[in-house]
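== Polypeptide entry ==
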Amino acid sequence: MAGVGSSNYWEDLRKQARQLENELDLKLVSFSKLCTSYSSSRDGRRGDTSDTTPLLNNSTQDRMFDTMSVEIEQLLAKLTAVNDKMAEYTSTPGTASLNAALMHTLQRHRDILQDYTHEFHKTKGNFLAIREREDLLGSVRKDIETYKSASGVNNRRTELFLKEHEHLRNSDRLMDDTISIAMATKENMTFQRGMLKSIQSRVNTLANRFPAINNLIQRINLRKRRDSLILGGVIGICTILLLLYAFH
C-alpha cells in the first residue's frame, strides 16, 4: 500500500508539473506577442507622429507587461517547488529500483523549467531594452520639437525686429530727403528775395522820379505780398503732409 501511495504521489507531482508547464507555455506565447506588438506600435508611432494613430496606449501595454510578468514568475516559482518535491521523492527509501526512470523524468522537467525561465528572462529583457530605448528617443524627439518651436519663435521675433529696423531706416531716409528739399527751397527763396529787393530798390528810385509810376508799384507790391502768402501757405501744407507721411 505504501508503494501504491508513493506511486500516486509521484503521479500527482507529474500532473502538477505538466499542468504548470502547459500554463507557462501559453503565458510565454502571449508574453512574446505582447512584446512584439509593443515594438511594432513604437515603430509605427515613430513613422507617424500624429495624435490620431490607432495604436494601443503605451501605459496599457506597460500594465499588461507588469501583470503578465508577475503571473509568469508565480508559475515558475510553483513549477520550481514541484520539481523540488519530485527531487525529494527520488531520494526517499524504497524508490531505488525506479530511481533511474524517476531521475530521467525529473531531469526532463528540470530542462523544461530551465528553458521556460531562460525564455521568460530573455523576452522580459528585450521588452525592457525596447522601452528604455524608446523612452530615450521620445525624450530626444521632445527636446528637438521644443528647440524647433523655440527657434521658430526666435526667428519670427528676429524678422519683426528686422522689419521694424528697415521701417525706421526708411523713415530716416525720408526725413533726410524732406530736410534737404526744405533747405534747397529756403536757399532758393533767399536768393529770390535778394533779387526782389534789388529790383524793388530800383523801382522805388524810378517811382520817386515819376509819381505816376508810384501807384502802379504799390499795386504790384500788394499783389506780390498776396502771392507770397499763398506760396508760403502751399509750402507749409506740403511740408506738413511730408512729415505726416514720414511718421505714418
Remarks:
- The helical segments are 2-47, 58-90, 99-209, 211-246.
- The chain has a mean pLDDT of 78.
- Residues 99-209 form the longest helix (111 residues).
